[in-house]
Amino acid sequence: MKFIVSSSGLLKKLQILGGVINTSNTIPVLDHFLFDLDNSKLKITSSDLETTMISSIEVDSSSKGSVAIPSKLLIDTLKTFPEQPLTFTVENNNTIEISSNHGKYALAYTEGDQFPKTITLDNPSSTKISSTVLAKAINSTIFASGNDDLRPVMSGVFFQLSSEDLTFVATDAHKLVKYKRTDLKASALAEFIMPKKPLNLLKNIIDNDQEVTIEYNNSNAKFNMEELTVICRLIDGQYPNYEAVIPNENPNVLTIDRSLLLASLKRVSIFSNKTTHQVRLKIAGAELNISAEDIDFSNKAEERLTCDYKGEDIEIGFNSRFLIEMTNNLDCKEVRLEMSLPNRAGILRPLDGYSNEEELIMLVMPVMINTWNYFLKTTSLAL
After folding, report:
1. Which pTM was predicted?
2. What are phi and psi of 21, to 5 degrees?
3. Looking at residues 359-382, what average pLDDT do you find?
4. Strands 314-319 and 366-367
């Protein structure tokens, strides 16, 4: 087994694939890249058993073979080379030799058949989606997913595909984000929960607009792109009925410049209690008063902003971290905050920056303002 490949081209592929590999693995071969050579095509695979990523690169070769090469050692070696052709040769003493313009380097390898077999999807359904749409859906929702090991279904993003639209939902029981596309459709109704790790990998590697084919069944999903394939195990379980917690009647509507609101929240939140992170929004007429207080250290901040408001005067508290995170993830000039009562969820919507075929709803539960304590049960979504 022998091939010649560009050092920079190979390094670029391996740095992307390396995102799958965990820092510590109980199975040693998972610290390796699988190199599967078929004449001029080199297929490279990385896996952590839950997520598998596959890419390929053109090489100069007329041989075939399969070996697993230590990932860290190979990447660290390639980083030191300027752009040049490298020759990889598998030797008889279980080493693979790399020949460059400057010298030779030998790495111990593992036989390719020791690497876990790639998952194949049985009788999958499929749908096609633009990579930019997929990236936007991931970026709009993934930050709202939870980290609670006791509720694993909330640790990912819920994909809801139908013949009418595609919907993506994430929640941690304190905040919820729903992103819907009515211009995209699936051939059949399907629902599954994607883990965060493969989604983070996908959003980081999408750098140009291309078509992505999503294949899925009850246990796995596969994302096929031009030069990359990501296969992952789905999160098992029933996603909560998120529609039931989105309030329909919100008569109190605040409209304000997003950047002004975000900057004010960032400043005022510095003075909030470090446990509750609470900020108070007091709205009367065309004035929004944002305040925070940490009684333990006598820290206090207050700002006034001009806004457009329709509804009764209201005073409501929110966790500033949630509100800042949601406002920061909106791509618009103006936002609308819809409220009903101080103990009911607030809904954040963009007023511009999104097409008519897009619907983005961000829901955040309030923090009780009769005291400066954070009542988790009172301010959690009933999911």
Report:
1. 0.91
2. -75, 130
3. 69
4. antiparallel
